[in-house]
Specification:
294 residues, mainly alpha, two-stranded antiparallel sheet, globular
């Protein structure tokens, strides 16, 4: 029994940073109603930013959040305002402009190949004070970096939901996500809201970068590893749902931790897709999604 509990603990720890990565993506989709295929690349930018800050300054990876979060927010804000906004303006009568998908795919390739040109293809790792640390809680072993990632995920999710529910800008974001035309009539600048939502999504990707640095390799295409998982988690949990992204990430983490104990690990991805399709068959809007005209 202790062995299986240990597996569940590992799965929850792993699933937490999956859910954290998916939160930024689901926020962007929930507000702007576009799929950001460059989300994994923004995570990669966050990882490289955190990597160089830690390597050059010797800071604790979580201290790097002081710089990484505002830098990624500005990056996301500018990306939305300069690259995506002109398409939204030109197709303001289209509820879901598909051209944005093409543009974000282009941004994905540009960022990944730019990182490849500048930093090379090698995998990088920087030793930190958290690397390799473990904690003993009774008879159970908990990897310290994963525990910190779990705590960071819960704190970030709580702060994000508080921000969206109780702040003026958060309420503006929710209003624009429900009906952008009605929000505009109420005096809300929808494009400024979009910029801020995109910036927050990028900032969350930066937080993931800091969380991953102590135990994960940094390389130019690292975002691809998380892209597919994030899309699965977002749809599984419910499009635009922050709690859904969190729960979806935990589910995927548990699957990846539990099922390799009973079958070869190559089947794990198949199980993830089977669970994903089974949930959508029963609940087409996802676990926490609302039935609405997206």
């Amino acid at each position: 029994m202790e062995f299986y509990i240990q597996i569940l603990i590992n799965g929850l720890m792993t699933g937490s940073y999956y859910g954290l990565a998916a939160m930024g993506l689901t926020l962007i989709f929930g507000v702007i109603k576009v799929i950001n295929f460059a989300h994994g690349s923004m995570l990669m930018v966050g990882m490289f930013t955190a990597y160089w800050i830690v390597k050059l300054t010797g800071w604790h990876p979580y201290a790097a959040l002081i710089l990484v979060v505002p830098m990624l927010f500005i990056f996301g804000y500018a990306l939305q305002g300069i690259v995506i906004k002109p398409i939204l303006v030109s197709q303001r009568d289209v509820r879901e402009p598909t051209e944005v998908i093409i543009v974000t795919t282009g941004v994905w390739y540009i960022l990944d190949n730019l990182a490849l040109m500048v930093f090379g293809a090698e995998y990088r790792v920087v030793p930190t004070s958290l690397s390799g640390q473990i904690m003993l809680v009774g008879d159970y072993i908990i990897q310290t970096p994963l525990l910190y990632g779990f705590i960071t995920t819960m704190v970030t999710a709580g702060l994000l939901m508080w921000f969206l529910k109780y702040t003026k800008m958060g309420m503006s974001i929710r209003a624009a996500s429900l009906d952008r035309d009605a929000a505009s009539l109420m005096g809300i600048n929808q494009y400024r809201v979009y910029n801020i939502a995109f910036g927050i999504g990028a900032a969350i990707a930066g937080i993931v970068g800091c969380v991953l640095i102590p135990f994960y390799y940094v390389f130019p295409t690292v975002g691809v590893v998380f892209d597919v998982k994030c899309f699965i988690i977002v749809v599984l949990g419910g499009l635009g749902s922050i709690p859904g992204a969190l729960i979806g990430g935990l589910i995927v983490g548990l699957i990846e931790s539990v099922f390799p104990m009973f079958m070869t690990s190559t089947w794990t991805e198949l199980i993830v897709y089977v669970v994903f399709l089974a949930v959508l068959f029963v609940m087409p809007a996802g676990l926490f999604g609302e039935k609405r005209d997206w």
